[in-house]
Write a structure and sequence with these properties.
Blueprint (H helix, E strand, L loop, with lengths): L2 H32 L17 E2 L5 E5 L4 H6 L6 H12 L8 E4 L13 H18 L3 E5 L1 H10 L7 H4 L4 E5 L2 E8 L4 H4 L1 H20 L4
Parallel strand pairs: 2-3, 2-4, 4-6
Antiparallel strand pairs: 1-3, 5-6
Bound molecules: iron/sulfur cluster.
The site of iron/sulfur cluster (SF4) has 13 residues, from α4.
């Protein structure tokens, strides 16, 4: 085989091996999540929802916690809010399978209550591990809880999603350069036309940025 072809084959193999390895890391994190009893949420959940998507994705979407349908199916964002997220993703040129989608808390809080500080503190090391493996260029936080958590990790002041949304925050997280883009949680669109429009506008802003960076 000519030298150039050998080198291309080697490069392809190393890229393929790296992808397998990232997937294996994510699978290992998911396996730990599934058997986790660190907080009380394991007592009431039906299924763990570790998160899912492309291991080498350049963009991660992070929500709050699984809801009813996510708990039933063990997948993130599969209820009505998830369908709207799919629509928003297609607006910016992404299929759900081409990005990574997860939550700061991996088990459903009873009756969809908000996650408690203790639950967030105990569960977020799993999200941190996922961020380390994926090494995204962009982290899109969906709603108050995930934005507050990610902002706290990079020492950005946070006074609510209404003030923070729709802007890009270039920073370092876990030793990596990353741009954080907060927006509303898609579930907000189910009860407020105002938030729905705002989400659509924010995703268009995001699309414009990703086009500039040639990521779509
Ligand atoms: S919610 Fe998180 S910390 Fe609590 S038991 Fe589940 S995986 Fe563990």
């Amino acid at each position: 085989m000519p030298l150039m072809l050998i080198s291309i084959e080697r490069k392809k193999k190393s890229v393929r091996d790296a992808c397998v390895s990232e997937k294996e890391f994510l699978d290992a994190i998911a396996a730990k999540v599934i058997v986790c009893h660190k907080c009380e949420l394991w007592k009431t959940r039906k299924n763990a929802v570790p998160g899912e998507g492309r291991p080498e994705s350049q963009i991660m979407f992070i929500g709050e916690a699984p809801g009813y349908w996510e708990d039933i199916k063990g997948k993130p964002f599969v209820g009505a809010a998830g369908k709207f997220l799919d629509t928003l993703l297609s607006e910016i040129g992404f299929a759900r399978q081409s990005v990574f989608i997860g939550n700061i808390v991996k088990y459903r809080p009873p009756r969809n209550r908000e996650p408690l500080p203790d639950e967030i503190q105990k569960c977020t090391p799993y999200l941190d591990s996922q961020i380390r493996v994926i090494q995204p260029k962009y982290i899109v936080t969906l709603g108050n809880y995930s934005t507050a958590y990610i902002f706290s990790k990079v020492a950005l002041p946070f006074s609510g999603i209404t003030q923070a949304h729709g802007k890009f925050y270039e920073t370092s997280i876990l030793g990596m350069r990353v741009t954080i883009f907060p927006t509303f949680h898609p579930s907000a669109s189910l009860y407020s036309a105002k938030y729905k429009e705002q989400l659509i506008r924010d995703f268009r802003t995001l699309r414009h940025e990703l086009e500039q960076k040639r990521l779509v």
